[in-house]
Design brief:
With 464 residues, the protein is α/β, with parallel strands linked by helices. The protein contains 13 helices and 21 strands. Strands 2-1-3-4-5-6 form a six-stranded parallel β-sheet, with helices on both faces. A five-stranded mixed beta barrel has the order 17-18-19-21-20. The structure holds 5'-deoxyadenosine (5AD) and iron/sulfur cluster.
Length: 464
């Protein structure tokens, strides 16, 4: 009889994909994935440490799992991901609340650790690795729409952004073998998927067969950088639309932009976190670029692809941020005109450069007020960008039924904007998830576009 695992993911897209890798590893061990903790023999929480609030949410969820355990003595609960390393003592020793703690590079040891848990012990493995990429593991897609999927191309991060806990929780940067990446993308295309998002903390520093100093490892094999990888997938998977995340402004090359511009099936959308509009703050953040450099990268994107959409991440109230520096962030938002942004209040994380070197001295209410101003500025910018699409014709990949109404379907255009359309074409042809359609954009709301579906594009034709 198969065992049942329920996996819940917190945090970034990479964590979502890691959960699928974990499901792949456990599938070999006889586990099937189920949709709720109540049905499961094993609950795994794949956690995030990026902000204090994220950790707090998970701690609450662990408490809920403990209540569930009280009614089901057989239930085992494990913590995976970024909190595993940070919190292992707390989770295993002090509170004795979980059975299993496994860090992001130790998922292959899950079957062995689960054996230990089965015999009544607590099990832990939070070792970080310089090599692990789970290259050949076949992920089991969880909560999938059958149309879009994540493919992780690299793990860890070697940038020491002062605010960021990731280098401590996910370890050193390493890239996955391009052939296994291509294999996974082809497999997804064969299974009917229409879009892949290539994931890494900093995709621009992807490199294969060459070390950080530029020494080629095996001269008989090609060297692959991120631009080469993107082109490899675009050319070999013509039926797939390709996205990627996350770019780093200091590393994003014109070579990548040229590849994007050259291939219709690479989406014209870039997530380029700026974090702050002030060069002085960027320096304290140790981001490796200043405002002028960032704006030049944006200009280069626009030169290569005038239609390209941009999104960003912003942190408000980083250590020492003055009112003038905050104003520089607002002016940068206005200058760039992002389609979308993820906006956060600074939250000090243990061990980071900022925690060691800078004082978290911006009062909470100032952080909140500045964040509100940033959100307001961005709302205007998003609305303006979306309104600018009205009247245009876009190619849209249908992902499923609209979240708002079952009478509508929703998909995305190349710029990653959500597009809502009626369920059928004018001739009555019903739309299905995975269809590429031509849509006339008729109106916009702050978060989405509405349109009229004009035609079904040849189902295997790749969209612009
Ligand atoms: N506090 C607030 N936001 C943070 N981020 C990363 N670390 C912190 C922190 N300590 C944000 C950054 C990053 C995004 C994933 O999360 O904007 O790009
Ligand atoms: Fe954090 Fe910087 Fe790495 Fe992004 S690139 S994960 S912000 S250290």
């Amino acid at each position: 009889m198969s065992k049942k695992v329920y996996i819940e993911s917190y945090g970034c897209q990479m964590n979502v994909n890691d959960s699928e890798v974990v499901a792949g590893i456990l599938a070999k061990d006889g586990y099937v994935a189920v949709q709720s903790a109540e049905e499961a023999d094993l609950v795994l929480l794949n956690t995030c440490s990026v902000r204090e609030k994220a950790e707090y949410t998970v701690m609450q969820r662990i408490n809920e799992m403990n209540r569930l355990k009280a009614g089901n003595k057989e239930l085992k609960v494990g913590v995976l991901g970024c909190m595993a390393e940070r919190m292992k003592e707390n989770l295993l020793v002090e509170k004795k609340v979980v059975d299993l703690v496994v860090g992001p590079d130790a998922y292959r040891s899950l079957p062995k650790l689960l054996d230990e848990v089965g015999s009544g012990q607590r099990a832990v493995n939070v070792l970080l690795s310089r090599e692990e990429t789970y290259g050949e593991i076949v992920p089991v897609r969880l909560n999938s729409n059958g149309v879009t999927a994540f493919v992780t191309i690299m793990r860890g991060c070697d940038n020491m952004c002062a605010f960021c806990v990731v280098p401590f929780t996910r370890g050193r940067e390493r890239s996955r073998d391009p052939q296994t990446i291509l294999g996974e993308c082809r497999d997804l295309a064969d299974k009917g998927y229409k879009e892949v998002t290539l994931l890494g903390q900093n995709v621009d520093s992807y490199r294969w067969n060459i070390d950080a100093r530029g020494t080629v490892k095996d001269p008989s094999l090609p060297v692959t950088d991120f631009a080469d990888l993107l082109e490899l997938v675009a050319m070999n998977c013509p039926g797939l639309r390709i996205r990627y995340s996350t770019s780093h402004p200091k590393d994003m090359t014109d070579k990548v932009l040229a590849v994007m511009a050259r291939h219709d099936n690479i989406c014209k959308y870039i997530h380029l976190p700026v974090q702050s509009g002030s060069s002085a703050v960027l320096q304290r953040m140790n981001r490796g670029y200043d405002r002028a450099w960032y704006l030049e990268r944006v200009a280069s994107i626009r030169r290569h692809m005038p239609e390209c959409a941009l999104s960003t991440d912003i942190i408000s109230g980083f250590c020492g941020e003055t009112e003038e520096e905050h104003q520089e962030t607002l002016s940068l938002l206005a200058e760039v005109g992002y389609d979308m942004a993820f906006m956060f209040k600074y939250s000090e994380r243990p061990k980071t450069l900022a925690a060691r070197r800078h004082e978290d001295d911006v009062p909470e209410e100032v952080k909140s007020r500045r964040l509100t101003e940033i959100i307001e500025a961005q709302r205007n910018s998003s609305a303006k960008r979306l309104a600018g699409y009205v009247g245009q014709e876009h190619k849209v990949l249908v992902e499923g039924v609209s979240k708002r109404s079952t009478e509508f379907m929703q998909g995305r255009n190349t710029q990653n904007a959500v597009v809502i359309v009626p369920k059928a074409l004018a001739d009555g042809t019903a739309l299905k998830p995975g269809d590429f359609i031509r849509v006339r954009i008729t109106s916009s709301t702050p978060g989405s576009l509405q349109g009229e579906p004009l035609a079904l594009l040849h189902r295997i034709q790749h969209p612009a």
